[in-house]
Structures are given as C-alpha cells and as structure tokens.
Design a protein that fits this description.
By secondary structure, the protein is an alpha+beta fold. The protein has four helices and 16 strands.
Length: about 240
C-alpha cells in the first residue's frame, strides 16, 4: 500500500487499515481488480475425536477443517466443541456474524443432549437452572429437560446461552455426574437435524437471515423463575 500499488476508486490508498465498501468501491492491486471474498457459513456435524482449531498441535491430530473442502480452509469455527463432544458446529469467514454468535450479550441459545452417569433426582434439574458453582464461576442452564433416567444413566437436554469452556461437563461434574456423551443439537435457529457425522452443508439464505435476526440486538440477561425451567418428566 505504501508503494502506491493499491488503488481505491482510481486513487492510491497508502495507509494500512484503509476502509472500503466491498459492494460499491473498486479496489485494484498492481492493475488487477480485487473481488470481495464471498461470505460463507456452513453447518458441520462434528464427530467425536476432532478438535475445533485451525492449527495442528501434533501430526496425527484431527481438525474439524479436515472435513471441509480444501478451498474452504479460510473458514473458522464459531465457538468450540471439545474433542470428545459431537454435533452441530458452525464455521464461517464472516467475522461479524461469528462475534455475535459467540458473545454472551447476544444470548444465542445453544441446545445440547447429554448422557450422564447415574439417575438424576428432580433436584438436579432445578440446581442446573439455579446455577452451579465451579472454579469460582457460576454455571447456569437456561432450560433443562430430563428425557430419560434409570439407575445407571440419564439423558438430559439443556439450553445454554453463555458458552463457557467445558460448561456442560463442569456443571454435571460439580453435581457428581460424569458426562459420557455430549451432542450439540442446535445453535439459535439452526438445527443439526439429520446431517450425518462428518458431513457438512451450506446454510440457506433463510437460516442466515434468522441468525442475523437473532443477533440483531444485544440483550440483558433473562431473569425468571429457575424452577419453571426445569422438567423431570420423560419427553414423548
């Protein structure tokens, strides 16, 4: 840029950080027009054993980007699922959308299904909604439904909005239950649906519009009765 090789609307743009409007400004580098990068957001069914990162720590480490076409390596994960977790992961090259989907102030609801050890008593669902203390943090679910429970295992569906590190596992561990399987089912209006493990799909225009509408306004934390959000009955 400082050499005058970048032109914006026919005039040199010499300062790094010069802002352009991709839809209307013409950018030329060394005489060649530059086309704006197409914004792309995809839904991936992350299998267990893959890491949400673009940097490989060991030669054998499997990354979620390994599951995407080579030309999509500029996509980055929206938030994280830990290596042993599965389910819906969004990847995008739209930085603004990524920020809004991951920042707690936008309150994007994420739905998980957890299989945990032991039979959950009715008080557990209420405790998860009221808030569980772990490592100096209060971890809280927005809604909890116990789908099934027997002497050895329980299956629970949870809605969260904050997305703290290992949040679901830490919540159950603090209450004496280990998570054996964790699957993310939904991010805002986007559902995992029937997407097979390891496969991806491009979000539809309707889904993108719904995501942007969901994150259009920052919201204050919801205040309601935690007991009203906990259900221990079997869901048909």
């Amino acid at each position: 840029m400082r050499e005058g090789r970048v032109l914006v609307n026919g005039a040199p743009a010499r300062e790094p950080g010069f802002k352009v409007e991709p839809e209307s400004d013409q950018v030329v580098v060394d005489g060649r027009p530059v086309q704006p990068r197409r914004r792309l957001t995809v839904a991936l069914h992350k299998p267990r054993g893959y890491v949400c990162s673009r940097a490989r720590q060991t030669p054998k480490q499997r990354l979620v980007t390994d599951l995407l076409p080579a030309e999509w390596q500029d996509l980055y994960p929206v938030g994280r699922l830990d290596r042993d977790s599965e389910g819906l992961l969004l990847l995008t090259n739209d930085g603004e959308l990524c920020l809004r989907l991951t920042h707690p102030r936008y309150g994007v609801v994420k739905t998980y299904r957890a299989t945990v050890t032991g039979k959950l008593p009715p008080s557990t669902a209420r405790a998860l909604c009221a808030g569980v203390s772990d490592a100096g943090e209060t971890l809280r679910a927005r809604r909890v439904r116990v789908l099934s429970a027997n002497a050895s295992h329980s299956v629970v569906e949870l809605e969260l909005t904050e997305g703290r590190r290992h949040e679901v596992r830490r919540m159950f561990q603090a209450l004496g239950h280990a998570v054996e399987r964790l699957v993310r089912l939904r991010v805002g209006p986007v559902r995992l649906g029937e997407l097979p493990p390891g496969k991806w799909r491009v979000l539809t225009a309707e889904e993108l519009a719904a995501l942007r509408a969901t994150t259009a306004v920052a919201r204050p934390p919801a205040v309601d009765n935690p007991a009203s959000r906990a259900s221990t009955g079997r869901i048909p």
